[in-house]
Write a structure and sequence with these properties.
five-stranded mixed β-sheet; peptidase activity; about 375 residues; about 5% strand; Cathepsin B, Chain A; alpha+beta
Length: about 375
């Protein structure tokens, strides 16, 4: 399948003068239910992806090619026949448009959602320590083979994985009862493709699309059973996956303890004050990837304390309770804990935090 194409240079070498450009109104769109039980998240991302194609948004060729190649493995009958496209060179976007013309939108949203599910699980398997929530939750561990099944529900961990796989910013607006403003979760905010926005309410995802009329019919039509080609997947065992996650948890915990001990020693030696710690934390978090929509571990978007408490519980240490003492001492302890935690889970850079003090120590050593 061609992934590159050539374009003719513009016929006109100079712009036409005397003609005023007309600014097109912004495309607003609306949230539309595209159905699904257990696969509503994947259908929603599929609908958002297709809507970007239909709206002529510039989706990267490599991403379209990746999705199409995988999709045709599961649904070969969706592949356009040769000669159905005019001309010799076909861009990935043109091939995707032909697929949209060939397959009903209702079927395509459902089947493409299945394809995206497989891509998300692939990402889980390659980086299980980043997507620990997919394998370790409040109930029991879920094997990748089960995740690949059409109706297995996977939480927003799957949305985060798709944002990476598709190199696309995905925003989830979580609507909760008695809360006027929805919680916004952003994944891969710096992705290079047009953003996809979905809404989550009562464990059901719905996408925001521009072509509202066209996608409304998808939710109104009854879902049909799909029959993807059954491809063999060499999945690691749950024991192997959980061992990798446990190893990463242990590494994070050890790094946290090391930084916590170092900061505590510096405070005790008078090298750091409460003001110094506060400046370190504020400056470090201000310049962190966390505020740019990039997180090293999925789950941090809900807050680093919640994520870290889960990790501590897994390490059988439990949540650390506040110690008794003066107010200043409690503030200092909380700042030490927060800085050490942020460094260990990749929200703050170790070098940025300690560079200033390492440099001062080096200068002092010269004059000793």
């Amino acid at each position: 399948m061609p992934t590159q194409f050539t374009t003719m240079q513009s016929f006109f070498k100079h712009p036409v003068t005397g003609v005023k450009s007309v600014k097109e109104p912004a495309k607003v769109g609306a949230f539309v239910n595209v159905g699904g039980r257990g696969d509503c998240g994947f259908r929603s991302v599929a609908a958002g992806f297709l809507d970007n194609i239909l709206a002529r948004n510039r989706v990267r060729n490599d991403v379209i090619t990746k999705v199409l190649n995988r999709h045709f493995q599961y649904f070969p009958h969706h592949r356009p026949q040769r000669g159905t496209l005019k001309g010799e060179l076909h861009t990935p976007a043109e091939i995707m448009q032909q697929v949209i013309n060939k397959v009903t939108l209702s079927e395509l949203v459902q089947t493409l959602g299945y394809t995206l599910r497989q891509l998300a699980v692939d990402e889980f398997v390659v980086h299980p320590n980043k997507y620990r929530g997919a394998f370790v939750n409040d109930t029991e561990a879920t094997h990748p083979a089960q995740m690949r099944q059409i109706h297995t529900y996977i939480d927003e961990t799957a949305i985060a994985a798709l944002a990476e796989v598709l190199n696309t910013p995905i925003e989830v607006k979580v609507v909760e009862a008695e809360k006027e403003l929805p919680l916004k979760l952003k994944y891969n905010a710096e992705g290079e493709n047009p953003a996809i926005v979905v809404q989550l309410q009562n464990h059901h995802y719905v996408p925001k699309v521009v072509d509202v009329k066209r996608f409304t019919t998808v939710g109104l039509q009854a879902s049909r059973a799909i029959s993807p080609v059954n491809l063999a997947n060499e999945e690691p065992s749950m024991e192997e996956i959980l061992k990798l996650i446990a190893s990463e948890d242990k590494r994070i915990h050890a790094e946290f303890q090391a930084h916590k001990n170092r900061l505590t020693t510096m405070v005790s030696a008078g090298e750091l004050s409460k003001k110094d710690l506060l400046n370190l934390y504020v400056d470090g978090m201000r310049n962190s990837d966390y505020l740019r929509g990039r997180t090293k571990y999925v789950g941090l978007e809900h807050g680093n304390q919640q994520f870290f408490n889960t990790l501590l519980t897994a390490q059988s240490e439990g949540v650390v309770a506040a110690k008794a003492g003066s107010y200043d001492r409690q503030v200092v302890d909380a700042l030490i804990h927060g800085i050490a935690r942020a460094i260990s889970i990749g929200q703050m850079n170790t070098n940025d935090v300690f560079a200033q003090f390492d440099q001062e120590e080096a200068v002092s050593a010269v004059y000793r």
